[in-house]
Specification:
Elements: E1 17-21, E2 29-35, E3 38-49, E4 60-66, H1 82-98, E5 107-109, E6 113-125, H2 130-144, E7 146-152, E8 159-168, E9 176-183, E10 187-190, H3 194-199, E11 202-208, E12 214-218, H4 227-255
Parallel strand pairs: 4-6
Antiparallel strand pairs: 1-2, 2-3, 3-6, 5-6, 7-8, 9-10, 9-11, 11-12
Length: about 260
């Protein structure tokens, strides 16, 4: 009623968002993202492999979201739980639907050699809204990736890697996720904390790209949304996209070698 939440935010207000790029030196690209207390780190490892027979001109992107027991008392150690699996599937869908990277760009030699990008997203501190933080960390880490140039020796057929010459990935879209929690079927709050997620009657995550197009709407059950409310969410997601894009561009610019 008073447009105020337990942490003092207004209903439509996001938590402070910070991103740090290149935080893992052993990865080919990495990023650490904080959304309030929710902290997620993403590391990208690139390996060479033969492309699949049915898509000889494409590489692979393999995302994996981990919610270890250290990030919250809600999770147990052991094989990935339901939420981690759902988050991994969500990220895989975002990569596929938004065409963040064209898989053809990862192909080095048609039918012979392609890059595989293993994107490990690990939550260090869980305080709600894992999907926004994970997709943001993935995007920032991919923008940080530098891959060495690889050529195939025609005579021997073996691949030769030139570590001195590195190229960034071609990022074709910047998908950004915006999550809302639904209360009493009518009230929408943005960027919910773990406590708010627990009390909510449902959640919805909207993913938009640079042109303001929808990449995906993720709504796992819960209370329904009217068309008007969904439209409202989409409009706010587009505004949020601009903010996140601005933040990423600023960080990338600040670490570019002068």
């Amino acid at each position: 009623k008073e447009n105020c939440r337990p942490d003092g935010r207004e209903l439509g207000e996001f938590r402070a968002t910070t991103v740090n790029i290149g935080s893992i030196t052993t990865a080919d690209g990495s990023a650490l993202v904080k959304l309030g207390n929710t902290t997620v780190i993403c590391g990208v490892k690139a390996e060479l492999a033969a492309p699949a027979a049915d898509s000889a001109n494409k590489g692979y992107i393999v995302p994996n979201v981990e919610l270890p027991s250290l990030c919250s008392t809600m999770f147990r150690s052991g094989p990935p739980g339901e939420e981690a699996q759902a988050a991994s599937q969500f990220i895989a869908d975002v990569i596929e639907n938004s065409q963040i990277i064209a898989k053809e760009d990862l192909c080095i030699a048609n039918g012979k050699l392609a890059w595989v990008l293993y994107c490990d997203i690990i939550c260090l501190d869980y305080d709600g809204n894992i999907l926004d933080a994970s997709s943001f960390a993935l995007l920032a880490a991919l923008k940080n990736v530098q891959l060495p140039s690889v050529t195939i020796n025609e005579e021997t057929g073996s691949s030769e890697v030139n570590l001195k010459q590195k190229n960034p990935l071609i990022i074709r879209q910047h998908p950004v996720a915006t999550s809302f929690a639904i209360f009493d079927d009518t009230l929408l709050i943005v960027d919910p904390t773990a406590e708010e997620e627990h009390l909510a009657t449902g959640t919805v995550t909207i993913v938009t790209d640079d042109e303001g197009r929808l990449c995906s709407v993720h709504k796992p059950g819960g209370s329904p949304l009217t068309g008007a409310k969904l439209q409202d969410c989409i409009t706010r997601a587009i505004t949020r996209h601009k903010e996140v894009k601005k933040l990423i561009d600023k960080v990338i610019k600040s670490i570019k070698p002068k």
